[in-house]
Automatic annotation (TrEMBL):
Pfam families: Mrr_cat (PF04471). SUPFAM superfamilies: Restriction endonuclease-like. Coiled coil: none annotated. The chain crosses the membrane at residues 12-28, 34-58. It comes from the Bacteria. Residues 92-199 form the Restriction endonuclease type IV Mrr domain. The keyword Transmembrane helix applies. GO terms for biological process: DNA restriction-modification system. Keywords: Endonuclease, Hydrolase, Membrane, Nuclease, Transmembrane, Transmembrane helix. GO terms for molecular function: DNA binding; restriction endodeoxyribonuclease activity. This is Restriction endonuclease. It comes from Lentibacillus cibarius. Residues 66-90 are annotated as: Disordered.
């Protein structure tokens, strides 16, 4: 709703309530109490202002619904692209961050993990949410396609551990094409709910999977 439309609607509401008050006064009270004329006019103005308070709220609710619809459409487009991913046989060293995420999505889907994409904006550091086909455990996954030598420290792991609560996941999985620092490994080892895959593990898993296709 534009500001012009909102202004027009407010004027219409004012006219309706004030007009209604005048009609009631004219039909029932005009010969008895002139002061009631002002009471009905004031009541009409106050009621119209109260009703107008709900106009911005309705507009915000409409915008939120529209944004949710857009996010669903974007995720559907991304899912369709991932289902037709051309990265299945690609060298992971040549992939971009998004392409690596697409590859891992395809990997987990083929293994029955029912991967779900998170919104690109405000993903809280989680790229995928997967479900273990054995026990139904929900796992928050972060994928990082880094060059060798660019190792993951413990801060990204801490961020992922905190973000899992937003997605109501009891467990986490951090995947990288590089490796983890010793501090990061210590942090992951201190948690029973976190698993980490470095470049060696990723390549081993992908190689076995790609050989089947």
């Amino acid at each position: 709703m534009t500001s012009k439309d909102r202004k027009t609607l407010k004027e219409l509401i004012n006219m309706i309530f004030v007009g209604t008050g005048l009609v009631i006064w004219y039909l029932f009270f005009r010969s008895d109490a002139w002061y009631l004329l002002f009471v009905f006019i004031l009541a009409g103005v106050l009621l119209s202002e109260i009703v107008q308070l709900f106009i911005p709220a309705l507009n915000v609710k409409h915008k939120r619904k529209k944004n949710r619809t857009q996010n669903v459409k974007e995720n559907n487009k991304r899912t369709n692209k991932l289902n037709n991913s051309s990265n299945l046989t690609s060298d992971i060293d040549q992939l971009s961050g998004q392409e690596f995420e697409e590859l891992m999505y395809a990997y987990f889907k083929d293994h029955g993990y029912n991967p779900q994409l998170t919104d690109k904006t405000g993903d809280h550091g989680v790229d995928l949410v997967i479900k273990d086909p054995q026990d139904g455990l929900q796992i928050a996954v972060q994928c990082k396609c880094y060059k060798k030598g660019n190792n993951i420290g413990n801060k990204p792991l801490r961020d992922l551990e905190g973000a899992k609560r937003y997605y109501k996941c009891p467990a986490t999985l951090f995947i990288t094409t590089s490796d983890f620092t010793s501090k990061a490994r210590e942090f992951a080892d201190s948690l029973n709910s976190m698993d980490i895959w470095n470049g060696f593990i990723v390549r081993e898993k992908l190689e076995k999977w790609q050989n089947k296709h």
